[in-house]
Amino acid sequence: MSTIAFTLMFAVWLMFGILGVPIQAELGLTDVELSWISAFAVLNGSIWRLPAGILTDRIGGRKVTLAMLFVVAVPAYLVSLADNYGMLLFLAFLVGFAGNLFSVGTAWNAAWFGRERQGLALGVFGAGNVGASVTKFIGPPLIAATSGATFFLGIQGGWRLVPVIYAVLLVLVGIATWIVVPRQDLTPGSSKSIREMLQPLRHVRVWRFSLYYVAVFGAYVALSAWLPKYYVDNFDVTLAVAGLLTATFIFPASLLRPVGGWMADRWGARRVMYLTFGLMLLTSGILMMPNGHIVISHADGSTSEHLAYHLPLWAFAVLVFLLGCAMGFGKAAVFKHIPEYFPDNVGSVGGLVGMLGGLGGFFLPPLFAYTKQWSGFPTSTFFVIFIVTAVCGIWMHLTVVRMLGALSPDLAGAIELPIEEAA
């Protein structure tokens, strides 16, 4: 039930990825203005993750989940009534509160499962990220089929119908959760003060995990909202096709999360993170290259063209799919670290990591828009992701090297084995 609730809330949180295209056409918004609608939703879905995680540890995940489902239903319905940019920004911010359910569900599930199964359990819950693809599937055909229609109680068709449907589903899932989920709430943090629960946040390790999560989750959120428009603008496809192509990124980035959790349980989280960052650097490194060729000017004044480069739609989609696979593994691996290092403070640590990862999803869409505006290259989107991933990978590797150096000080700083050992 926590996974079902999270899937729905995630769909609501990121619904502007698809709704943004018809909204932009109706209200005459620029790309930068449109990017801020998704960014505001992501912002409010991130800033409360730390207190939500702490609250879950103190009073239980069932209570917090129920409250969030019913609260978010109200602004979700009101989105259907928005008729100007300012009102839409405000309601997008309120709807974004749905994103905070992640830290609630993380603490809730961690409390119910032993350490040997937490990677898989948290991976299954985190697969609710697939909710980001729900609007990509139902949105375009629903918008096209109901555009211009008016329904019961004056509800309008087109893009305005989607948030109404979500509002109804939030109430129904809230009722189902209240009926189905065990009344007993596990509260591992009920006997601790807020000060005690915040103590682990003093560790640099927590902030390093947070940066990893910016790369694997913040970039995932940003791309989920950004890709439909990217496909429409750069490959001249319809919104429905763009939604389906975006789903080929969202599905592996979500549904492979349990696999990533299992891999982290079996082989260790750091090995999975090396795989994640390596694959992300490879795919984003290719995707960031703009179409074109190199022109060489010769001494006699003539020119010649070499190394013509063009990435067709199918190749772009395959690379984005692989990027999603890497993010799916990585999201689970990051959260495998948390109950291992901080078993008694999963709510606060997971809340901070989730909050900062989500804030990455807030900053990245406007950054995509501004770098495109500055460089003129749509592919600058993937250059941003490449840089973030490179910073994370370098920091992690330096940490591993320092850790191994501390365990084997006689080999610290050596790049060759001693002659007797090599022999």
How are the secondary structure elements laid out?
Elements: H1 2-13, H2 16-27, H3 31-44, H4 49-59, H5 61-79, H6 85-95, H7 101-112, H8 118-126, H9 134-146, H10 161-180, H11 194-198, H12 204-235, H13 239-255, H14 257-267, H15 269-287, E1 292-297, E2 303-309, H16 313-341, H17 346-375, H18 380-407, H19 419-422
Antiparallel strand pairs: 1-2
Helix pairs in contact: 1-5, 1-7, 1-10, 2-3, 2-12, 3-6, 3-12, 3-17, 4-5, 4-7, 4-17, 5-6, 5-7, 5-10, 7-8, 7-17, 8-14, 8-16, 9-13, 12-13, 12-16, 12-17, 12-18, 13-16, 14-15, 14-16, 15-16, 15-18, 17-18
CATH homologous superfamily caption: MFS general substrate transporter like domains
Largest sheet: 2 strands, antiparallel
Distance between the termini: 59 Å
State the share of residues found in helices, binned by percent: over 70%
Structural class: mainly alpha
Name the average pLDDT: 85
| N to C succession of SSEs | HHHHHHHHHHHHHHHEEHHHH
Helical segment count:
19
- CATH fold title: Growth Hormone, Chain: A
Low-pLDDT regions: none
Domain count: the total is 1
How much of the polypeptide forms β-strand, as a percent range?
A: under 5%
- Strand order within the widest beta sheet: 1-2
Global outline:
flat
The appropriate CATH architecture is: Up-down Bundle
CATH class: Mainly Alpha
Specify Rg, calculated over alpha carbons.
23 Å
Organism: Tessaracoccus rhinocerotis
Domain Major facilitator superfamily (MFS) profile: 1-404
InterPro entries: MFS, MFS_dom, MFS_trans_sf, NO3_transporter
Pfam families: MFS_1 (PF07690)
